Structures are given as structure tokens and as C-alpha cells.
């Protein structure tokens, strides 16, 4: 399975890196695009080198290479993930401004009706951000802010990253055991018993 992964310059570069690590374990073919701002964020926020990150991917393209394979609809893949997705990248994609490879690859993913998952990273959201997200959501783009779940009782930051990565895998139709799944029936039975006491 071939997936395009873009890491933009928003804080939270580890979301993209952790996805990349789990994707490699799962045997996925990852086409990686890093923005220039992402490279700076990775250096500031993580202990990963760009060399290590590039080695995790099947291949890596420069964000300025508008002629790279992911810029064409004839380049077949099973989905694209932008993790994290900055508001600048969100705005460009929502408005069809394909000025770099990340934006163009996302534009192509939308026009070819392939799955696009965007881990939008900002808080609070302004009305402009929300309008851009709504516009893309109506086109079928999955808007997925990296909000941690706590019903799985995470003990470490890695637990939070694993859960989010598993949820991205779910959106792409990739079977995984990364997600601690909600056991709704068991929870209801427990709650019913507690209320009956």
C-alpha cells in the first residue's frame, strides 16, 4: 500500500514521525514530503535527524519539486496524510493554491477522489480556519485535529501517539492493533450495575 505523507511546519512534527515509524513496521510504502518549516520544527522539537526520518520513508521528495510523482494524478497511491497540517497549508489547499509539492499533491488527491487526512494543528481556531476546514470537509477531506483520547488511559506520550496513528490507519482502511478500542457494551454494563447500586 502506497501512502503520501507530508509533514508541514506546524508544531507537532512527532505526529508525522510516529506515523512514519508505524507505517514502516506495517510494510507500507511511504512517499515523504517535508516542508522547509517542518525541517526547522523537527530540529527544534525532536531528537530525530532528517537522515533518520528520510531512511524511514520509501522515498523522499523536495517540497519545491513540483514535478515529483505525487504532483500528478497518474501517480497511483491509496491516500495522503498531512501530519501535522499548518493553517498556511490548510489555507493553500482549501483555496487551490498549489504553490509547492505538498499543496499540489493534496490538490491532486482531492481531484482524484482519494483519501486525504489532515491533522490540523492550531488552537484556538479562528473563523477563517474553521471555514477552510469546513470547505475541505464538504469535499470529503478528513479533518482530524490530533486530540488525544483518555478512555484508553495512556501512561506515556507514546501511548497518545500510537492511538492517534492507529486512528489515521483506520481512516486509510489499514488494519492495525495500535488503537485501544472503545468497548461500549462492557462500559454500559458496568455503568448500569453502578447505577443500580
The end-to-end span amounts to 51 Å
Strand arrangement across the biggest beta sheet = 3-2-1-4-5-6
- Give the count of helical stretches: 8
Q: Main sheet, how many strands, which sense, barrel?
A: 6 strands, parallel
Task: Indicate the low-confidence ranges by residue numbers.
Answer: none
- CATH topology descriptor: Rossmann fold
| Full CATH superfamily name | Flavin prenyltransferase-like
Overall 3D form: globular
Order of helices and strands: EHEHHEEHHEHEHH
Number of strands: 6
Rg, nearest Å: 18 Å
CATH architectural name: 3-Layer(aba) Sandwich
Q: Overall pLDDT, averaged?
A: 94
Q: Which range does the strand content fall in?
A: 5-15%
Write a structural description.
It is built from eight helices and six strands, in the order E-H-E-H-H-E-E-H-H-E-H-E-H-H. The chain is an alpha/beta fold and 197 residues long. It has a single domain (2-196), classed as Rossmann fold (3-Layer(aba) Sandwich), CATH 3.40.50.1950. A six-stranded parallel beta sheet has the order 3-2-1-4-5-6, with helices on both faces. Helix 1 (13-25) packs across helix 7. The chain is globular, with a radius of gyration of 18 Å.
Summarize the structure.
By secondary structure, the chain is of the alpha/beta class.
Strand and helix map with partners:
Blueprint: E1 2-7, H1 13-25, E2 29-34, H2 36-45, H3 50-56, E3 59-62, E4 80-85, H4 87-94, H5 101-111, E5 116-120, H6 127-137, E6 142-143, H7 157-172, H8 184-196
Parallel strand pairs: 1-2, 1-4, 2-3, 4-5, 5-6
Helix pairs in contact: 1-7, 4-6
Catalytic activity: dimethylallyl phosphate + FMNH2 = prenylated FMNH2 + phosphate
Binding site for dimethylallyl phosphate: 151, 167
Organism: Pelotomaculum propionicicum
Amino acid at each position: 500500500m502506497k501512502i503520501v505523507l507530508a509533514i508541514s511546519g506546524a508544531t507537532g512534527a512527532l505526529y508525522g514521525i510516529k506515523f512514519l515509524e508505524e507505517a514502516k513496521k506495517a510494510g507500507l510504502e511511504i512517499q515523504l514530503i517535508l516542508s522547509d518549516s517542518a525541517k526547522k520544527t523537527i530540529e527544534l522539537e525532536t531528537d530525530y535527524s532528517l537522515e533518520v526520518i528520510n531512511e524511514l520513508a520509501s522515498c523522499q521528495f523536495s517540497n519545491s519539486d513540483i514535478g515529483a510523482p505525487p504532483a500528478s494524478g497518474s501517480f497511483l497511491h491509496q491516500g495522503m496524510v498531512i501530519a501535522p497540517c499548518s493553517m498556511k497549508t490548510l489555507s493553500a489547499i482549501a483555496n487551490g493554491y498549489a504553490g509547492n509539492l505538498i499543496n499540489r499533491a493534496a490538490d491532486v488527491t482531492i481531484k482524484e477522489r482519494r483519501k486525504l487526512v489532515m491533522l490540523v494543528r492550531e488552537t484556538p481556531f479562528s473563523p477563517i480556519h474553521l471555514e477552510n476546514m469546513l470547505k475541505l470537509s464538504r469535499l470529503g477531506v478528513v479533518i482530524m485535529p490530533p486530540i488525544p483520547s483518555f478512555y484508553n488511559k495512556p501512561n506515556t506520550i507514546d501511548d497518545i501517539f500510537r492511538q492517534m496513528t492507529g486512528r489515521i490507519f483506520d481512516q486509510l482502511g489499514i488494519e492495525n492493533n495500535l488503537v485501544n478500542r472503545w468497548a461500549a457494551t462492557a462500559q454500559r454494563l458496568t455503568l448500569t450495575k453502578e447505577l443500580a447500586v
